[in-house]
# Entry
Amino acid sequence: VQLQASGGGLVQAGGSLRLSCAVSGRTFNSYAMGWFRQAPGKEREFVAKITWSGGSTSYAGSVKGRFTISRDNAKNTVYLQINNLKPEDTAVYYCAAGSSLRLADFGSWGQGTLVTVSR
# Structure
């Protein structure tokens, strides 16, 4: 499976962005999908994940209430709606596909899209 993330950019604090991740492959709807991010000088961290059906989601505490993950299996695409952006959200955002919701099972990664939040 191949993943292509897009939608990043420069935005002012308080603004919004919607990230997209297009997934190639015939079995998209069998994968759990997730978003992760890596800020400059920091390790990659989990942001959000969603089951193959879209029926269950989970978020990191730092983004809960501001970020929303969703998926459209007909379009082989997963989204991350980001609202009320904060400077500390600045990072490269990666989408990933997993055989389950366990973070260790996310084994396929996209190239990342950069989100920069100015004060």
